[in-house]
Design brief:
The chain is of the alpha+beta class and 535 residues long. Helix content is 48%, strand content 23%. Helix 1 runs antiparallel to helix 2, helix 6 packs parallel to helix 10 and helix 7 runs antiparallel to helix 10.
């Protein structure tokens, strides 16, 4: 009877222990379910869940890897207990062509349990685990709606037998955490979408608030960095039918050899590729492969990855938006969800700026000749007179008038006269410097502004133009014409100290040139200029 009583008590004790363990397991699972339902913070969910699970299973280390569908990898998101060297080795696990514990669990869609790793002679997990003293491990894939979400990896430095209780607990955990992780990631996606929308709204406000392109670029750069990281942000604007580009540095926190506003040829560059193929171009890691002409320079400056996004407007590429990073594989196809809307907003900004520039140019340009008009003259003089005064330099002005032009119009008509005016303006512009400015002042009168030019220099330019006109033949339809011009010359500050005075003195000199026979240059209060007196 005593023995029977002792056996009965032993059975009861075992059953009580079993019941306690089951209650404890259920309590942990229930707590995980509650945690997954009440918390949308992925880090908080994983930290609390993993700590409780490792303690319950008597395991030393654990890690959660999240599924990256784009790269077909499991990427470590959170871990506890693994030494840094091992954590680094298992930070990113490829699923394609790999036979390790994590890929096997994902491919087979079931938990994998290794009671004793030393018996798994063919497992790639064997060497890595034994090097760090681990003897047993398990991997549970976490799925939601049939799609992989994450994997749970647990390891122990002891050889353990994964009995039914632990297997059931891990499987329950997998089902619970799969849904919790899916929920948390959806919540994060909602937050990211809200942030993206807010930034795009701010960018829209920037576009509508300013026509200052450099200022817009700088504010763009600040807003974009909120959404996607970079070490250098650029915009390239194609010119000369895409053979050249002007490159603008929006933001670059580190030293670069690329000057802002530089114009460079596109041949052999990534920009040529984007303009030709009309799509986004990614460079994953410049340390492994450098495809384009500029990549060697980028690599020497520490850049490891890049993305180039075409900026579209009216079905043509008007620019390329570029991000560089010192981190390899920094940019993926998923980033296009951010970059393409940003590029669209940038296109609106560029279109608005170009339209403004075009309207401004038209408002300051003579429609017939393409030269500047009186509005441009006023703007230029308001800048050049103070500049000459500030640096103690001279500024010359030529006023040209076609001799007897009324006779041309009366004899051959205004169409022929217009042809002559266009050809004359082209001759003048082709024979002055890039910094000089040609203005159609009115009718057949032209002004040429010559910065940093003294009287001798101005007289030389006036005579050069006068002689070229005299020697040229101007065509107007089927008729050909020869014309001459008279030129008045005035210099700041020798002859005048204001813009209006300078124009008046040049006009007075022009009057003297015409009064004294035409087809000659005349300087204000200096007398008639002839070739003999000049050279």
């Amino acid at each position: 009877m005593v023995w029977l009583l002792l056996i009965a008590l032993l059975v009861i004790a075992v059953l009580v222990k079993k019941i306690v363990e089951l209650k404890k397991d259920h309590a942990v699972v229930n707590e995980l379910v509650l945690l997954g339902n009440r918390s949308l913070d992925l880090s908080e969910t994983l930290n609390t869940a993993l700590e409780g699970l490792l303690e319950l299973l008597e395991m030393d280390s654990g890690a959660v890897h999240l599924y990256s569908g784009e790269n077909a990898k499991m990427v470590m998101y959170f871990q506890k207990g693994y030494p840094p060297s091992l954590a680094e080795k298992i930070s990113s696990i490829p699923l394609q062509g790999a036979a390790g514990l994590i890929p096997r669990a994902v491919h087979e869609k079931r938990p994998i349990f290794l009671d004793d790793i030393t018996r798994e002679k063919s497992s790639p997990y064997l060497q890595v685990s034994l090097e760090h003293g681990y003897r047993s491990a398990a991997c549970v894939p976490l799925f939601a709606n049939g799609e992989p979400v994450a994997t749970l990896l647990v390891s122990s430095r002891r050889s353990l037998r994964f009995r039914q209780r632990k297997i059931q607990l891990l499987e329950n955990f997998g089902q619970t955490m799969g849904l919790a992780l899916k929920k948390a990631r959806l919540h994060q996606q909602v937050i990211q979408d809200k942030q993206r929308f807010a930034v795009l709204c701010d960018i829209t406000k920037i576009i509508n608030s300013s026509l200052d392109l450099p200022a817009i670029f700088q504010r763009f750069a600040r807003e974009i960095k909120i959404l996607i990281d970079y070490d250098r942000c650029l915009v390239a604007l194609p010119e000369n039918e895409g053979k050249d580009v002007s490159v603008f540095l929006l933001a670059t926190p580190h030293k670069t050899s690329l000057p802002d506003g530089i114009t460079m040829a596109t041949a052999g560059t990534s920009l040529e590729w984007v303009l030709k193929h009309k799509k986004v171009q990614f460079e994953k890691d410049l340390e492994k492969e450098r495809l384009f002409k500029e990549d060697e320079t980028l690599y020497k400056e520490g850049i490891r990855s890049a993305v180039r996004v075409p900026i579209w407007a009216n079905e043509e590429i008007i620019g390329v938006f570029i991000l560089n990073s010192k981190t390899p594989n920094c940019y993926t196809e998923q980033d296009l969800q951010v970059l393409e809307p940003v590029a669209e907003q940038l296109a609106f900004s560029l279109e608005k700026y170009f339209l403004f520039q075009q309207v401004t140019r038209l408002s300051m340009t003579d429609e017939l000749t393409g030269c500047g008009n009186r509005r441009m003259l006023r703007q230029e003089m308001e800048r050049e007179i103070p500049r000459a005064d500030r640096y103690g330099r001279t500024l010359a002005m030529l006023m040209l008038d076609i001799d007897h032009f009324k006779q041309v119009n009366d004899t051959y008509g205004h169409v022929a006269g217009d042809h002559i005016l266009r050809d004359l303006s082209r001759l003048i512009c082709d024979n002055v410097r890039d910094i000089d400015l040609c203005i159609r002042y009115g009718g057949e009168e032209f002004l040429v502004i010559l910065p940093e030019t003294d009287l001798d220099g101005a007289v030389a330019v006036a005579e050069k133009i006068r002689l070229l006109v005299e020697q040229s033949v101007f065509s107007a339809g089927e008729s050909e014409h020869r014309i001459t011009v008279s030129v008045g010359i005035a210099v700041y500050p020798k002859h005048a100290i204001t813009a209006d005075e300078l124009i008046e003195r040049a006009d007075s000199a022009l009057y003297q040139a015409k009064k004294n026979g035409r087809n000659r240059s005349y300087a204000a209060e200096e007398g008639t200029v002839s070739l003999q007196s000049l050279f």
